Amino acid sequence: MLAIINQVFELEQKLQSRDDLSAERNFKRIFHEFEEMGYRVINPINRKYSETDSDIEATLPATLNGDLRITRVLKPVIYQKGNIDDISLVQKGIVIVEAV
Amino acid sequence: MDNINFGIDLGTTNSGIGKYENGKVQVLKNPVGHREILSSVVSFRKGRIIVGDKAREQYLSNAQNVFSAFKRKIGTNEIYPVNQQDEITEVSAIDLSAYVLKELKSYIHGNPPEAAVITIPASFDTIQSNATKKAGYLAGFEHVVLLQEPVAACLAYANLSHLNIEDEQRWLVYDFGGGTFDTALVYINQRELKVIDNKGNNFLGGVDIDHAFIAQVIIPRLAELTGDAELWQKVSQKTGVYEKLWHYLNYQAEEAKKELSMSPSVWIEINFPELDISAEFEITRDVFNTVVEPKYKETEEFIRSLLLENSMSFSDISRIILVGGTTYIPYIKDALKNISNTIIDDSVDPTTAVIVGAAYYAGSQPKPVSENPVVQNDQPKATIDIKLSYEAFTNDKEELIAFKTANPFTGYYRITRSDGGFDSGLRSFDQSASEFVTLIPKSKNTFRLGIFDIRQKEIYSNSAISISHGLYNVSGQLLPEDICIELDKNNGTTYLEPIFKRNNILPLNRTLYKVFSKSVIKNSDDKIIINVVEGKGGTMPGSNLSIGYIEISGKDISTDLIQGTDIELMLTMDESRGLNIEVYIPSSGQLIKHSFHISSRDVSVDKSLYDIAQAENILNREIRLSNDDEAYEVSALFQKIASDLNSLKGELHAIKNDNITAEKYRLDEKKRRLLGELDSLTRARDVHAALHKYREQKQLFIDRKGTATSQQLTAFENIVSREGEFLNSGDKHLIEKYQKELTELNWAIFLQSDENYVSLFYNIASRPPEHFKEPANLGFLIEEGIRHINEKNYQQLRQLVYVLSANVKNEFKKRENPDEQVGGGSTSNLGLR
Lengths: 100, 833
Description:
The structure holds 2 protein chains of 2 kinds. Helix content of chain A is 29%, strand content 33%. By secondary structure, chain A is of the alpha+beta class. In chain A, strands 1-4-5 form a 3-stranded antiparallel sheet. Chain A is flat, with a radius of gyration of 15 Å. In chain B, helix 14 packs antiparallel against helix 16 (732-752) and helix 17 packs parallel to helix 19 (794-807). By secondary structure, chain B is an alpha+beta fold. In chain B, 38% of the residues are buried. Chain B has an 8-stranded mixed sheet with strand order 7-5-6-23-22-25-26-20. In chain B, strands 1, 2, 3, 4, 10 and 11 form a 6-stranded mixed sheet that branches. Chains A and B meet through helix 1, helix 2, strand 2, strand 3 and strand 5 of A and helix 1, helix 7, strand 24 and helix 15 of B.
């Protein structure tokens, strides 16, 4: 299942990078279906980098100066829902962090 | 006497912990991030001590305070200076190893163990071995038993493969990890397992293959496509945007490597807008192998030399055991097979084989009676009184958790989020501290605070720190009631499905994906009704206040609406509870927008009459049933409601064309009150019945569990894990939904067995002829079926049951839920399902 979510996420990224938003509604629907199946997919793009966020695996620049933000998301963060209050991280986001 | 039961692989690059229990080994997962493997990396930054992947992240940016591969230096006098907030402290490889061991201890639920088996390389001398033991004691273990890594790996393979060793054998352990290579010769017989000799290289691992793959394969292709002949020079310098490209290519190389382990070729897609690079090319396994080959050859030299030094050849080796993630590469397995012509055993996950072996060993070792001369640990357990303060409900993305103790105390604290997405790392604590924690939106976030003494032994924990984001808020605008949408059921009635739950914070928005349950022809008078009500899910739709009502008739649409096609409803409710509904019809691309405010609600007399008609159907059945049961008092209550509804119906007909007075609002109010009374009389009983049916199906599944497939078991677990959501909802439709899913699962399990078709056959065969569409050749088919049963020809019987089943008239096909019209053609009123 995670492989399918990653492929859909990659497909969305690819179209967005070409400014092609024609399928946005379809992606929104697909991610809604994933959520119905208990998978919550989070795209941490532009999020401020924090070393306490263990939901991501980041590659950092050589210097930690400036405002560090996630500038590229190679794999999204995925949580899986158990019962109503119980969620757990099933995939860490793989991201690149830069000083912006 | 208790056994040790916990085994730890304290690796140069990665570590892990396993637990032996009831004859099986479980590799434990990190509660933070839920991975089995922990990077053996420790970082110190701004008073924070972090172990694992997050520490490894800082390898480039905080190089002087990030420590890895310290296992190579264990047992030496080397001291690592740590520069934190202008204060230099010193740590040794033993201290760093102890941090990794403590982190692994935190994977264990319940009381931490007193003893553990820790693995060491076969090459470790006495000083290195004692230093590893010392790290174990520092980590809080009272007893430490060491085990050589190759022995652990062999134990894992021997136990998991249930090998029966009856003679003397020699195995070769080939351990090719992320950063190191080790090989060992192991002697094994019926009783013992020992390392004869070993060799290795601490600077040869999978990461070297990744880098060679980028330099020799990916970069030349990219250079050719972009025309930049100096691309490798720029990337290897890792400055500016090329640093980002380097990280990006590392990820792509890693992914391609994994895929090439399974497929003969892979398409690599490079999409890097910062340098305007957009390229796609295919790499075959043969090309990848040209990169692997030289690294593999280096390892082969070690093996050959090891055998030579021990006067052995490959023919003396019975089995080669694979350990380490790099051995996933098919070329390596093939090459080893070619040179050795012996069994290449990859039956155990090579990344966890040493952990599994260590745990098996731990499961057989009794806890030693006394040990540990290094660190005394006989002080009484310290206690501490902690006062916590935090906002339990918030709309912010971050919240502050502050805590203090009244008595003087110096030590450490650590805060983690139960889902694994937040970890403060170990931070110093001097009587008071505070930490900003990040929150998952629209969820209950549960945190754990641990307080540790100066030796990092946990002396206090609180796992019940709960911060809800966006669910409740004392100062925010709360939704006082559920907001629901009315939808069609298969049997011609309707029900309410919650859109927004009571107590959620406004504003709220949600997109619903539904299908049309009937067709509407363009320009016809037929219509689709969208009715949004304020009231509890599971109650009778007509008993609730309608707050958003849209009719889409054939005159409003640009093309025909076809039954079964999609409709999207975007609903938003603002802080003043204004409701906005956008209806999008994907098949035609039509968008219809409506805004409602509670003060300008619309009331449809037709809809009220429809609600009453629905209620009358229910009332007729209820009156009949209660009379049958001689429950005349209850019957009288139903009859009173029926009579009142009948007069109301008359009043509604009388005002049908009245668009001026407020009479229709008054009558709507009356209708809601009467339907509310009916609802309260029937709902508790219906919910009880739905719960009973659900439990019956659940028990049936548990009884048949032994024959369920893994997919069916997963589906069952998914349903059970949601019980908290629906069992106490008071919503019979929601309970029925999951009960139906269970019924389908049970039915599928039933049909998996050929023998069950026998009872199915007799069930159909015993039906009267009027149940069949074509009873003419029934006799022949039944005879055939009996012959198949006698001959135990179940495949043929299965086919015949399908034929017979297809011949049964739809109205006699009901399996479950008598209120459901299976296959009999569904009816639809509103047009949405």
